[in-house]
């Protein structure tokens, strides 16, 4: 069993230089802050990471970052 957790999975990626600001989606994410957990799911290349990392930088709340992929499907490793 692979037990090493890459630290890159725990750090927000740096902002892109060519960032396309999505104010409507940023506002939507801010409205759902009443929830304790949020899952953003979409196919690869749809801008999930860019959107969420941009939103997180604009808020003054505490947050955590965890990137998951196919290899992270072990419940014990996830927890």
List keywords for this structure.
single chain, 79 residues
Q: How much of the polypeptide forms β-strand, as a percent range? A: under 5%
Give the overall form.
globular
Number of helices: 3
State the helical fraction.
25-40%
Structural class: mainly alpha
Low-confidence stretches: none
Main pleated sheet: none
Report the count of strand segments.
Answer: 0
Order of helices and strands: HHH
Q: What is the radius of gyration?
A: 14 Å
Characterization of the model:
The structure is a single chain. With 79 residues, this protein is mainly alpha-helical. It has a domain at 19-69. The protein is built from three helices and no strands. Helix 1 packs across helix 2 (48-58).
Offer a concise description of the structure.
By secondary structure, this protein is mainly alpha-helical.
SSE topology:
Blueprint: H1 23-31, H2 48-58, H3 75-78
Helix pairs in contact: 1-2
């Amino acid at each position: 069993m692979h037990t090493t957790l890459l630290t890159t999975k725990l750090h927000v990626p740096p902002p892109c230089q060519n960032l396309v600001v999505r104010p409507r989606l940023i506002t939507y994410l801010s409205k759902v802050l009443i929830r304790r957990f949020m899952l953003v799911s979409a196919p690869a290349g749809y801008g999930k990471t860019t959107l969420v990392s941009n939103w997180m930088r604009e808020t003054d709340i505490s947050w955590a970052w965890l990137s998951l992929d196919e290899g992270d499907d072990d419940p014990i490793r996830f927890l």
